[in-house]
Amino acid sequence: MPPVEPPPSRWSFGEPLGQHLFDDMVGIGADLEPGTLLAAYRRGLFPMPGGKPGDPLHWFCPVDRGVLPLDGLVVSRSLRRSCRDFEIRVDTAFADVVDACADPARPQGWIDGDIRSAYLRLHELGWAHSVEAWRDGRLAGGLYGVAVGGLFAGESMFHHERDASKVALVGLVGLLRDEYVDARLLDVQWMTPHLASLGVVEIQRTTYLGLLSRALRAPLPAIWR
User: Distance between CA atoms of 3 and 84, rounded to whole angstroms?
Assistant: First the structure.
């Protein structure tokens, strides 16, 4: 189903520059309505819950943004072998993927009930998607994020079996490598040592915003149009 544009947000997001030149966090407040989330992603922002229940939302546009160049994914020999052991599916278990990513046993968990509900609504409207690695009829790993034009904003990933989340990432890159590959942008928010080992690099905020502007003019990958 092509994505359905929700009512516009009642909030306005300014440019994530100016007084925020050296801060990753560029805003506080607003809400998680679909229109608000889409407006934020189109301006380069993404939400995180506040530190305590009842705290306002925090909005981030990192000074150093983690992105995965689509021609830079590092696929080791062992990962290439693992890719043969899993079946890639798309959007068949979105809620299960989000729930696995939100597992409270995971360190530094941030996906609360409000975030879960918000992205389930985005999924129902055709904007949020999961890429899943299955084996023997079991969901073994996956990732989810938001697709707006040529942007895929990755939110979180998980695995129950070795390499399963990496296999899902390989599958996502395959979906994005089409005739519009030069305009597409795979955003992972922040670079970590694990993501760096897969080819993720850091770019400056201004560079990211320029790439984002171009990506938003590209069409969605064919599977989500």
Answer: 31
